[in-house]
Amino acid sequence: MINVLVAGFKGKMGATTVQMIIDNPKFKLTAVYDLKAQEKNLNELIEYQNQDVIVYRDKEEIATDKIDVWVDFTHPSAVFENVKFALEHGISPVVGTTGLTAQQVTQLQEIASQRKIGGLIAPNFGISAVLLMQFAKQAAKYLPDVEIIEMHHDNKLDAPSGTALNTAKMIAEVRQEHIQGNPQETELLPGARGADYQGMKIHAIRLPGYVAHEQVLFGGKGEALTIRQDSFDRISFMSGVAVAVEKIQKYQELMVGLENIL
Ligand code: NAP
After folding, report:
1. Fewer CB within 10 Å, N side or C side of the chain?
2. Cβ–ligand 1 contact at 123 (below 6 Å)
3. Number of domains the chain contains
4. Segment 208-247, tens digit of pLDDT
5. Which segments of 24-95 does DSSP mark as H helices, in order?
6. Structure pTM?
7. Cα torsion at 96, 229, 194, 209 (round to 10°)?
8. Residues 67 and 192 occupy one common structural domain
9. Which of the residues are catalytic?
10. Residue 104: CATH number of its domain
11. Do 57 and 143 lie in a common domain?
12. Domain span at residue 78?
């Protein structure tokens, strides 16, 4: 049985994860953590269960020796300290929260390697998003002019999305860096051409009604290719989270991307 703590359990992803952990016979929901948590928040989530789950509001109070895996769906401002805390206490982190900088990821990877602890940071736990990134990397070998459009609900805090950034990074592994569009182009409104990653433009849409969606557009001479994925419901991320929770303790490093453990 794998003992799991869910950080950010009151949130949209955290609450979905709590239900998935309870429903999976291989996992035990041992604790939940959320800055402003109250017992009643957990009872609201799992009122029909007779669970023995500890609710924490203060990280320092967590009985770390009773936890195997820390699932994090919190906030970009909290995720670095949370993952550092988990690693320093011998807990394997499974991280869905986006917003970690490259420098922070490197720092966390060093701690994990020193302590030989397995962990995963997945910008997207959806299988369709992982496939989109792999297909996009394949296509970019032949069609190196690329723009990315990511679309999310209007409560999302960071932009571009972790998935869009990861897509650009994966494409950059096979694409020679170059300027796209007209070198003389000017923006009549700042930001009109989007963010820039090695010459690839990334556009972030925020609208009510959306969950998480991405398009990668390739243009060649006389042809174009569009690859698109849609996450319509947060449940779509749960099979990826479950695989990570089940497998992560077998590793001795902190990896980035669900594809590393599939
Ligand atoms: P959300 O509904 O706002 O939930 C975040 C929860 O974390 C809230 O309950 C919040 O509490 C809590 N929180 C904030 N700071 C905290 C801290 N320092 N320690 C503990 N808990 C804290 O957000 P969400 O939609 O669930 O998304 C959470 C994260 O997951 C975001 O970064 C999002 O981009 C990411 N995400 C990733 C994937 C993926 O597949 N990797 C998919 C979807 C979303 P308060 O409300 O009291 O502030």
Report:
1. N
2. yes
3. 2
4. 999 999 999 999 999 999 999 999 999 999 999 999 999 9
5. 39-46, 79-88
6. 0.84
7. -80
8. no
9. 152, 156
10. 3.40.50.720
11. no
12. 2-121+235-260
Q: What are phi and psi of 147, to 5 degrees?
A: -130, 145
Q: How high is the mean pLDDT of the chain?
A: 93
Residue nearest to atom 2 of ligand 1 (CA): 11
Q: For residue range 187-214, list pLDDT tens digits in order.
A: 999 999 999 999 999 999 999 999 999 9
DSSP 73: -
Identify whether residues 83 and 110 lie together within a single domain: yes
Does 90 share its domain with 168? no
pLDDT at 48: 42
Q: Is the minimum distance from the CB of 216 to ligand 1 under 6 angstroms?
A: no
Query: Could you tell me if 86 and 179 lie in one domain?
Result: no
Looking at the fold, whether 94 and 163 belong to one and the same domain comes out as no
Place of tokens 């807990």: 91
pLDDT, tens digit (0-9, with 9 covering 90-100), for 118-173: 999 998 899 999 999 999 999 999 999 999 999 999 999 899 998 999 999 999 99
* Length in residues, the chain: 262
111 and 161 in a common domain: no
The residue type of 214 is E
Enter the tokens of residue 260.
């590393």
- Does any ligand 1 atom lie closer than 6 A to the CB of residue 36? yes
